[in-house]
Amino acid sequence: MNLPQPFVERMQQLLQGDYEDFAQALMYAEQPVSIRINNAKGVQPPTDARPVLWSGGVGYYLSQRPTFTFDPLFHAGAYYVQEAASMFLGAAIKQYIDAPVRYLDLCAAPGGKSTHALSMLPQGSLVVSNEVVRQRAQILAENITKWGSPYSVVTNNTPADWGRWHNYFDVVAADVPCSGEGMFRKDEQAVDEWSLSNVSHCARRQESILDDVWSALRPGGLLIYSTCTYNLEENENMVQYLVDNYNAEPLRVEIDADWGITGALSGGSAVYRFMPHRTQGEGLFMALLRKPGEADDSCGVAPTVREKKKKGSTQSPKMKVNRDIEEWIAPDAPMQLVAGETSVVAYPQEYIADMQAIQRDFDVLHIALPVASLKGRDFIPTHALAMSTQLNTTRFPLCEVSLDVALAYLRREAVVLPSDAPQGYVVLAYKGFAIGWVKNLGSRANNLYPQEWRIRSSHAPDVIVDAGVSKRI
Is residue 456 part of a domain? Predict the structure, then answer.
């Protein structure tokens, strides 16, 4: 790796005597592999893994790199592959959030911090994951769907769009686009694209993003600001920008000295830096700030929820929910089924008005729990239902399959079920985790895995190394 000379000179000035250790780690240190398990799906962590201590109890370093594409449990949402430093979000959430919140992950693709928030936030929290780039938003929707929480929404909008929902969110997480210095070790392209002008461009864009979304955060709410870069312009200076322009209050997160996390390289704000020569992982900067003021009765009320219905407006005709479909979700789930023209969605009861308002105001790619779609006269269970933690597992037969069959299914190839497999819609499972639906016709089984999510490689490695997670008994 050939580091840009201006980057070297700037880091030498920032780190002083620490620079040589930093450069050695950046250039030559082994890159660790880490995952987060999905505790809502009853996942047991790998037995030979070491915990990521700041993750909130769900992150683990693996002893070797799995072939993730060919591990069906990766596609089942049993775990998420995430850089260890990014899991510091878990420590911040555990310390400051102890009741359900409305949470916006503003720059959320591909979904690491959103799925972490879904695991760590108090039960009943609403997580809205937004991404402005359409293709990245579709990947985000796939990962959120696989994680299986009905308290999730994925949108494809700008920060300014969300800024119009004044005082709605209790927490806004902004993992903003940055110059990517913390990813140099993993991404040669980030090295090639780095320049002083790009650092300045990123800092201006970050100011614009924060300006646009600040009004969406309620008084007294929390902003979680993060980047994967090292410089002052996009980190400490951006925290100072929020202090100077919005009277934001930086908050301290309790950390253990053994974790190796460092503080500010300039100024005295409470900020948290992950440096490759001190922590096992890539570079990360994170700060937690509180918006001044106290929430009032208007906070948390979606604008379109308060508005009166316009005269002359009519609702689209809705089909009647088949009583049988009500049994597709867990009987104790606090969900309400709503039927549209061609689909049935189960909404968390406490957020049904909010989610429907989001659907009216934003470009939504995923919301709550899509349960069924209507094709002709038949209701077809959605892939989201198979992935959901709210699937009624007693309502559908489950067919455990081998690795070869699971991979054929995930490639969307034809699969053959055992002769005694029941006919109709069947949940395929691998090591106890649902991977999706087939419709068993007896002589053959129709593969219902989403075409756009299929594994495109036709050949698997001779030896497949999985992540080693298992179902908790």
Answer: no
Please indicate, yes or no, whether residues 321 and 248 belong to a single structural domain of this protein. no
The secondary structure element, H or E, covering residue 90 is: helix 89-96
Please indicate, yes or no, if residue 94 is contained in any of the structural domains.
Answer: yes
> CATH number, domain at 254?
3.40.50.150
The DSSP bridge partners found for residue 285 are: 227, 273
Whether 131 and 251 share a structural domain? yes
Angstrom distances, CA of residue 392 to CA of 79, 100, 115, 331, 375 = 21, 25, 22, 7, 22
CA 340 – CA 58 distance, rounded (Å) = 37
Q: Domain residues for 145? A: 5-30+82-290
The continuous run of DSSP H or E covering 355 comes out as helix 352-361
**Active centre residues (catalytic):** 228
* Nearest one of 117, 103, 288, 298 to 219, comparing CA atoms: 298
Shared domain for 22 and 131, answered yes or no, is yes
Are 121 and 160 members of one domain?
yes
Under 8 Å between Cβ of 430 and 39: no
> Do residues 205 and 241 both lie within one domain?
yes
229 with 326, same domain: the answer is: no
Tens of pLDDT along the chain (473 residues) come to 789 999 999 999 999 999 999 999 998 888 899 999 999 999 999 988 999 999 999 999 999 999 999 999 999 999 999 999 999 999 999 999 999 999 999 999 999 999 999 999 999 999 999 999 999 999 999 999 999 999 999 999 999 999 999 999 999 999 999 999 999 988 889 999 999 999 999 999 999 999 999 999 999 999 999 999 999 999 999 999 999 999 999 999 999 999 999 999 998 889 999 999 999 999 999 999 999 999 898 899 988 655 444 444 334 445 566 778 999 999 988 999 999 888 999 999 999 999 999 999 999 999 999 999 988 888 899 999 999 999 999 999 999 999 999 999 999 999 989 888 999 999 999 999 999 999 999 888 999 999 999 999 988 888 899 999 999 86
Q: How many domains does the chain have?
A: 2
Pairing relationship of beta strands 102-105 and 169-175 according to DSSP bridges? parallel
Q: Is 239 helix (H, G, I), strand (E, B) or coil?
A: helix
For residue 381, being part of any structural domain is answered with yes
Q: Is 407 inside a domain boundary?
A: no
> What is the CA 338 to chain-centroid distance, rounded?
25
Q: Is the peptide bond before 110 cis (omega within 30 degrees of 0)?
A: yes
SS3 293: coil
